[in-house]
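Students often ask why we bother encoding 3D structure as a string. The short answer is that it lets us treat folding as translation between two languages. Here is a chain of 264 residues written in the first language.
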Amino acid sequence: MSQAGPGKHVGRLLAALLLAVSLAGCATLGMVESIESLLAQGKELFQSGNYGEALAKFQAVIARDPKSWEAYLYTARTYIAQKSWGPAIDNARTALGLAPSQGDVLPVLGQALLEGGRDSLQRGQYAEAVTRLRDYLTQSPTDAHAYLDLARAHLGAGSWSDALGAVQRGLGQNGDAATRQDLIASLRDGARQALAKGDLKGGIGLLEEYVRRDPREVSALVDLGKAYWQTGQQGEALGTFRRVLELNPGQTDALRYLLNPPPR
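And here it is in the second language, the structure alphabet:
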């Protein structure tokens, strides 16, 4: 009985190796097809409003391919639809990190930050609102209404100078007339809050900007004059009360401070 030569052994090994490579290739192809199928199913579920099932599909894709930026993007979109802002922001950031040049990623992150910031503002989570709105404005620095939201968040947190800065930046944009009016009104509202809390310096800063924008508002000028007086700025106070009397000659507070000023 003849023995197999070395050539036959090599041929068998080579055939086995080729078979193993072929099987591995088929397995890889099957996984790719499975990932694509899962992503397509998730998108279809998302479009039909089945958000919980859609998330399960997208998360299955991420488990198999942690660099699938599209799965992270659609996960973010799904969380936005559910108004779950924290996970939406986190997944949109991951998608942006994986695919910074994909044009549809940045708008999704912006939407999550803006709407999430406004939600935080409504819930009184002012620090969280500030963080989200600031991040949004980093990528959309001409959104006047977002500056209004940011100013309101700062006012809620008692950060008067930061609120003033947000209003000034908002007024520097080409916002509509209603937004500009709201920005200016936020200065007055913020000044009232600051003065009510005894923060004269914060109130003065907001009032000075307000009367610069609306120099004929008598009540704001009166409040500004009183704040000046209480902080020892008597010259500024008296000058402000004279402006009040030019607008309203019978204004009693202004007359009192000018004719018979109270002790500081």
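Translate back mentally: Residues 6-47 form the longest helix (42 residues). Keep this in mind for the problem set.
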